Fold each of these.
Amino acid sequence: MASNGETTAGKRAPQRVALIGATGSIGKSTVDLLVRNPDRFSVVSLAAGRDHAELARLAILLRPEFVAIRDESGFEPLKEALVGTNIQIGAGREAVIEAATWDADLLVSAIVGAAGVEPTHAALQLGRDVALANKECLVCAGAPFMRAAREAGARLLPMDSEHNAIAQALGGADPATIERMIITASGGPFRTWSREAIEKATVAEALNHPNWSMGPKITVDSATMMNKGLELIEAHHLFGVPAEKLDVVVHPQSIVHGLVAFADGAVTAGMAVPDMRVPIAHCLGFPERLDAPTPRLDLAQIATLTFERPDHERFPALALALGALAAGGGLPTVLNAANEIAVEAFLAGRIAFGDIARHAAEAIDIAEKNGEAKEPASVAEALAIDHNVRDRSRRVLATSRL
Ligand SMILES: NC(=O)C1=CN([C@@H]2O[C@H](COP(=O)(O)OP(=O)(O)OC[C@H]3O[C@@H](n4cnc5c(N)ncnc54)[C@H](OP(=O)(O)O)[C@@H]3O)[C@@H](O)[C@H]2O)C=CC1
Ligand SMILES: CC(=O)[C@@H](O)[C@H](O)COP(=O)(O)O
Ligand SMILES: [Mn+2]
């Protein structure tokens, strides 16, 4: 193959793509774009958590070389579904890492939660380019994670919509030279609700996001606005911008996703309809542009774009995340782990909506008192803090009953 990716016959070889979190919301949107561009992409590996039936369907559609299922009980049904193919199959934690590090040009990292840290980090260490949807990687292990990418010469392409918009709005400018970086928040389903009503919101109400169709964990994070807090921490690490230069503005239409303000007063913004296939297409095509079948933005039809300041009283999770970002050290790791377990408990009907932020605040207090919140020096140290907090949160919330 020639150095520009073209074969000696002049035709460009398909880009080899590994996709972890294939059965989820980002995974399916990614697959939608990949199957529309069969000459451009070849899917070489897939990984998922538990949904062996959907993983098998995707494997038959995409014909990867390797598929991995985290839940070991999914191995036999997956094997049965793929009889007659030459697709290799693995199950368990190591198999997911194998899928992430499979020989590929690009890894799309779309597992939800800190479960994505190990496989994504393993790929970065090999110098693999990574399109990063999973924001928890950077909240749990930001500094060592970014260091691994730098040291291995791996490129991190931001797939989260706000960060992708900002990467585009930067237009090649050095983030160190900018005045402010602003991410927008839809405000979620409870943007106009009273604090008392938010406190008692049901699972169905929290899952009713006004603009985006996403997996359950991030949808609940949007409702608490923890998602925006996690995204500020994500932006801090991705772009190397200090907390004081980062801001959130509530924008209920989710058309403007991220903005960059420069020293001369100019502001550039990344805009698009709220459809994740826009940032996914940007990452897959980069540095070129893919044709994506997304609805086009028609500003005259939308007519009104509005902006508000976030309300930290009604959305204490945002204030909590801002505090963790400012304090640094291991606090973002603690916050992320406690939030994941609290969201799990809320979705299982064991705690109230208002308990999510309360539990995360308590976890931070305990970690500070116990001296457990020191800066993780490595991804392994970050994961040790994560596991410790997770275990404690599970114990604390196990006995909760509404
Ligand atoms: N959805 C969106 O629009 C956006 C999502 N993101 C981020 O992208 C990530 C994915 O979100 P989303 O697609 O909504 O989430 P989903 O819940 O829809 O999908 C999660 C995926 O992760 C897999 N998974 C879960 N646990 C494991 C594990 N231990 N090992 C391997 N695979 C696992 C699931 O597999 P299975 O279903 O088979 O169990 C599924 O494929 C999150 O970090 C989210 O914050 C960022 C911006 C927008
Ligand atoms: C699509 C995406 O990037 C999500 O993170 C989205 O931003 C969630 O919506 P909120 O703005 O309500 O958190
Ligand atoms: Mn986002």
Amino acid sequence: FGQSLLHTVFPPELRFASLKLFHRVFTYFSSYCYYDITEIDGVNTNELYNAVQLYLSSSASISGTRLSLTRGLNSSSITFGLSNNDRLIDSFKGATVEWEHVVTQRHSQTFSWRPLPEEKRGFTLRVRKKHKHLVLTSYLDFVMEKANDLRRKNQDRLLYTNSRGGSLDSRGHPWESVPFKHPSTFDTLAMDPASKAQIMADLLDFANGEAFYQKTGRAWKRGYLLYGPPGTGKSSMIAAMANFLGYDIYDLELTEVNTNSELRKLLMKTTSKSIIVIEDIDCSINLTNRNKAAAVRKNISNNNNNSYDVAASGASGGDDGPNTITLSGLLNFTDGLWSCCGSERIFVFTTNHIEKLDPALLRSGRMDMHINMSYCTLPALNILLKNYLGYDLEREAVEEFAAVIEPAEMTPADISEVLIKNRRNKSKAVAELLEALKIRAEKSGMKKLGNKMVGHVEEEEEEEEEQEKRALDEQLQENINKFGDEI
Ligand SMILES: Nc1ncnc2c1ncn2[C@@H]1O[C@H](COP(=O)(O)OP(=O)(O)OP(=O)(O)O)[C@@H](O)[C@H]1O
Ligand SMILES: [Mg+2]
């Protein structure tokens, strides 16, 4: 009506100007202002659009009567979205806002480096003018933050590997990823409850510690060294950490990395909120003592050769050649300037032989926490029994188990094997486990006794040898005394 009125009242040359004026007057008197958030901003995808879509899908906002449902690849949950041209009311700190999903047909395909979708999508946010400041300063940030949280919750975590060696994929990424669906959590992890609680608190402190790290001038990263015999839950602990914090895992295969610079490139391509894992670090590379490497480097630099790699690989005594990854490269990877090229990252190293590691890796501050994954203890056994059988030990049984569990030196993996085998029959499972523990305790007791006896026998043999030697010496001395005079 307004338009036809405009056409009849105003001559064509004044039409545009009058429309503009009309619009201005309308905006001036209207108590609302409007923000358009389009799906594509120029040629780039608008992150805010995706964030709003995800935010509106959160259950709190589901009051719309018509919703579109989607489930992404590898995602474990369904996302709700506003249908085309539908509206939704949301409130934030006392302000009420209205979202409208606007979908229109794209009329003519304009020139673009990549084909644009046929539909033009966007959200229009309608806000009262008096709330404009609040929306621009905090509401949109809140939406972005909430969307990031939701994304993390909805998507399964990814497990990255560098098993392709140094080759890159079509997008120039050195990492390959698969959905990470390990079910291990801190609830299912059998270990001493006190140290478990300590680790969980440490992880939470880390994840919520952005301000602290900023204030103290430290890089926002943390290192854990997990050590202990095979089958004590080191890998399960890493999975539990990832599930607890909602982080992705980068499983770094050091044997596939050829040089220190390749290692650095891999690090640069990791995202924040991730755990970078090097399993069995003692077996991965020949980690030479840095002092030795430094000494060799000095010699070589005296001969006008400055290659650090050559120096360190020379120190390893091997014929690894110049292109090898060195301990110093690895330390730079975790500690140096490059380790800060992202944020919120956790480094986890695992080993079965902590005594084989170079002291440089163990010094304080390098790995923030050393976690000993030991043989199964009574509290850990309780967790396993509860998880596998839904069974609580009775008081008499507790005493019986307590007597054998420590000397038996059985790993949680050994114990879970026995429990899985008999999981249909609880009492049989417990009886068999007790029997197995007794046998192992006896065996390891005998082994220890044997070692002790071997020690004794060796001592006795040494004593005998010593005596024989002394007798021979005396005989010799006697002979010298006897024949010396004659000679
Ligand atoms: N502490 C534990 N709590 C619960 N389950 C465990 C624990 N330790 C081991 N297991 C069970 O034993 C299996 C092997 O454990 P895991 O791979 O975590 O051991 P690991 O310490 O990483 O061994 P390795 O040193 O050989 O890599 C897992 O599948 C898990 O079910
Ligand atoms: Mg393991």
Amino acid sequence: MLLGRALTIAGSDSGGGAGIQADLKTFQELHAYGMSAITAVTAQNTLGVQGVYPMSVEAVVQQIDAVGQDIGVDALKTGMLFSAEIIEAVADRIQHYGWRNVVVDPVMIAKGGAALLQTAAIQALKEYLIPLAWVITPNIPEAEALTGIKIGSMDQRKEACKRLIDLGAHHVIVKGGHEEGSTKVVDLLYDGEAFTEVETLRIETRHTHGTGCTFAAAITAELAKGKDLSDALSVAKEFIQAAISHPLGIGAGHGPTNHWAYRGLIPS
Ligand SMILES: Nc1ncnc2c1ncn2[C@@H]1O[C@H](COP(=O)(O)OP(=O)(O)O)[C@@H](O)[C@H]1O
Ligand SMILES: Cc1ncc(COP(=O)(O)O)c(N)n1
């Protein structure tokens, strides 16, 4: 079995459904060796975000260096980065180590509406981090915020993909989870030349806390094990579809997905 070394640079979700916790659970399920650099601690549960406590830039850099100088990284993902200062420091470390399998999930707002990225930091994402991305995985509101394009159609989504490639990303996946009112969910992949639509059945559920984190983490785990992006995306779609299809029923609000479901474990 090929063991990939996967690093997540993201925020902690005390409720365990999103952020670092979702990433590490996903890495483990997909047989990648999971490591983390925490950018912020959130007090969070299925009802919402009760508190956000960013780490110092120094603490974030030290965690990344601890991993980079000893263990090594085959692929990494970024999630909640909170501030322009943290984004600049993370980009600097990625360049320093020459890491190439970089999955940028441009987390901005929690599903309950809490800000996980300062508005002023969007420019830093575009300037410093997106150019280092092997793939960037925005949802529709994030793609709108990054490109200024209002997305109401597939053509507008394609236009947004082109803008993100122009910013320096190698590949873009604009996810379709937010496009409600259809029986299908379509994720759009663009490699700078061709578009690929990946379509699955939309599952009617309110338990979608952490879907974006889990999806990007599954791509990262597969890249870490040496898969190419197209194969990594196939696994990630199967992983997230299974995780959303069999929710755990935890908490009174928007519950987490089931990170065991891909391997067939459905707790009753
Ligand atoms: N209700 C759903 N049914 C099936 N797949 C979904 C559903 N909601 C989201 N997904 C999938 O989960 C992944 C994360 O998408 P999305 O929820 O849009 O991201 P985010 O969590 O960043 O808002 C995508 O692959 C998307 O297609
Ligand atoms: C610490 C942290 N990071 C990310 C998210 C986004 O969650 P989602 O994957 O549902 O967009 C979150 N709610 N909390």
